[in-house]
Structure formats: structure tokens, C-alpha cells
Amino acid sequence: MSGGGTETPVGCEATxxxxxxxxxxxxxxxxxxxxxxxxxxxxxSRLLDHRPVIQGETRYFVKEFECKQLLTQxxxxxxxxxxxxxxxxxx
Length: 91
Description:
This is Biogenesis of lysosome-related organelles complex 1 subunit 5. It comes from Neomonachus schauinslandi. InterPro entries: Bloc1s5. Belongs to the BLOC1S5 family. Helix content is about 65%, strand content about 5%. By secondary structure, it is mainly alpha-helical.
């Protein structure tokens, strides 16, 4: 704000008592409700977060694809060199 006066905190900005512990609608940070919510979050992430599995499967697929692509390229290059040899032998 403009002006040289002191500003008073509004709404949520005010911290009554100036305490260090966080406090919300569930109580203190170490309350049983917080511990239960934390445990539920961990269970949810372990059961329903499939990103690590999908990333591993994707890496495996890409690795297999690249190996097969290299194999196919080497087979194609061998075919080309064999055809060239046959052509040169007929000349």
C-alpha cells in the first residue's frame, strides 16, 4: 500500500500467538489425523501411481525396438552386399 503507516495483516495473514507449529482445521502437525492422512497418501501412491512401472516398460520397449532395428539394418546391408557380389560375378 502507499503511505508511511503500519499495515495490519488481513484475514489469513494474521498469526495469532506467533507459534512455530503449523495448525489447520485438523489440528497440530503431529495429530493422529495428520498421520492417517500421511499414511493414506503413501498407500495411494504405492497402489495407484503406475508411473515407475510404465517408465520401466517404456524403456524396455525402446531398448528392444532399437536392438531389432539394428539387427534389421545389418541384415539389409548384408543382403545389399551379397547382391552386389552376385552382380559383379555375373559381369
